[in-house]
Amino acid sequence: MIKLLMTILLAAASVPALAALQVFATVPEWGALAREIGGDKVSVFTATTALQDPHRIEARPSLLAQARRADLVVATGADLEVGWLPLVVRDSGNANIQPGRPGYFEAARYVTMLDVPAVLDRARGDIHASGNPHIQLDPRNLFRIGEALAARLGEIDPPNAPAYQAGYKAFAGKWQAAILRWEKEALPLRGVPVLVHHDSFVYLAHWLGFKTTGTLEPKPGIEPTSGQLSGLVARQQGAPAKMVLRTAYQSDGPSLWIAEKAGIPAVMLPFTVGGTPEAGDLFGLFDDTVQRMLKGLR
Amino acid sequence: MLHKPFAMVALLAASCGAQGASDADLAAIRGQIDEMKKTYEQRIAALEKRLAQAELDAQAKPAAQAEARPAVPDQQAPGPVVAAAPTSASAFNPEVSLILQGQYVNTKDVPNRTITGFWPNQLDNLRGFSINETELVIGGGIDPYWRGRAIFAVNDGEVGVEEAWFQSSAIGHGIGVKGGRYRSGIGYLNEQHPHQWDFANAPLMYIAMFGPEASFREDGVQLKWLAPTPLFLEFGAEAGRGANYPGTDRNKNGVGAWALYAHLGDDLGVSNSWRAGASYLRTSSDSREAEFYDINGLPALASFTGDTDTWLADFVWKWAPDGNPKYQNFKFQSEYFWRKDKGSLNCSGLGSACDPLAAGDSVGGDYNTNQRGWYAQGVFQFTANWRAGLRYDQLDSGVQDLGANAANLVVEDYKPKRATAMVDYSWSEYSRMRLQYAQNKSMIGITDNQWIVQYIMSLGAHGAHKF
Which residue of chain A comes nearest to B41, CA vs CA? Predict the structure, then answer.
């Protein structure tokens, strides 16, 4: 009976040939990048939103169903999605998106990683062996990632390869100009000391030149403790931070507490596409990030 | 020191790259130079600090190549696109993890612990401090076509093979094949290991269905197919040895047990997701033995030969605000089972009602049962660290037709019940401590107030958990 059922379902499945290339993006920034490059040649599913902690996603049934139909998985890698993506990819029964196949793309492989730990020990918190995975916040990284993604899209979908190349070129041109604008706008942020909730802004700091002087989490992935927070407030006397940063998905309690005690602004940054109403696409993401930080400085 | 010149060179290289990047805008660069002078001083100070830290690390662990990355090359430095280091999932090939689990139990002393009204499997009467089996998990890709995993349960003086299977990764078309020893995909909780449970012990129905282990494990093959639909729709079929309760090992060729199941699931908005399932399991027994009591209260040995059909329905619903479960989430799960034994029961036992003259006689007769049960539980995580949960269990002994042996053996009509409350604290994803209270009425005439303090710790590779 099950055989009959499977035959019927298989037959039904083969009928609707999907026109656009199906892209499964783990996080909004790669979904947005795939749209910039692929345009109407791709149909993008984004597995998470900016309000969700990408470290803590459940391997939901809907994700399995989407991964089953995907032609390309675009992930950050560097262990960011280790809690759910390996399971989703494995149980999807989709041979094309298995690691090592062209249908599995990890952005972190194309950039220089920061904060690569010399020693791997969980006593230091939930550290990532290949470095800090929040690579999207240095916009310069998107050149290499975008170039590699365009090449990969072309490899999977050869007839449209020139379109992906053209899509990338158009994006890269606009992006180059936007980066110069952001760098100019963000000059006052150079050397500014800030506190962060989690090490989410390492690449942003590397790009804009502000300094991270402390994290609210005592160790990566461990929730802020009152001891850690009061320690940071005490340190404000000697080396005052100018603002405290958090992402849209992190709870606001700890940074608001610090902000009040230390008399500095708590600044919520979109972190990825969709994190704030203004961060509707990749350009909006950095426009809003720079504006919010500049506002925090005033 | 040697590191300083190296850092300077790296900085120089970095600054060249930065200039290259902003070449198009010379005016902006002039404006930046003063700013940069200041920041370079700060950067140098920071780098010196990092170098000092790296040296300290290097002293602490000479083997560690801490000084290998004194300065990070600038992103804009021209050069070919080079793949970064492989992710740790493949760096740790195979992935290894170890689960440590143990508890303190305060409960009534009931030497012959069973569930009244159900096949009398002997259950633990464990009190005080104890540790569970320590689970060692080793897994990874075998080659581009297969992956494998083994879970060893280490106990005093013995190592059990909890699971040991290979799984396909290259068939495609939604098809997954698994072979070896595995936890069957029937029901919802069946595939989960005890460290994944939301309570310190399994629901009563799992113990009634599958004995003290509370899971149906199988040596066999599993075939799964995921439909290419936007709705999650999965079918599974299994065939295997069927050596575990409610089946028994049998000395014969062919299949001892088979199972069929289907799962359906989806999201409702961004905050809700659910999965529902229906399963069927067929097992066969050849002289499945257990100690019954005869009508005089004396022990008698009964053995069942026949087939058992088990049907299961399961439902799970998870909620998290904005779909972000880190700080707050709620999980509801419920399962229902219905089981039929059909076959014959042979009763023996010197001096018991089945063999009153101690002549080695036995009494054979029909054995048919029709039994059911369910549980429902809800677990609410109200902060990043704290969770609390409630669970209710109820079984129904239903029809127990012992045929000719009805005159010899005692069977009780009973509805076992248990209510459980728990609260747990997690320091991180890898460590959890739990306090649990249960009022257990799974045995007729006994109300057992059970307290359990439990710890679950895992170290090693970060295992992803199923929904």
Answer: A191
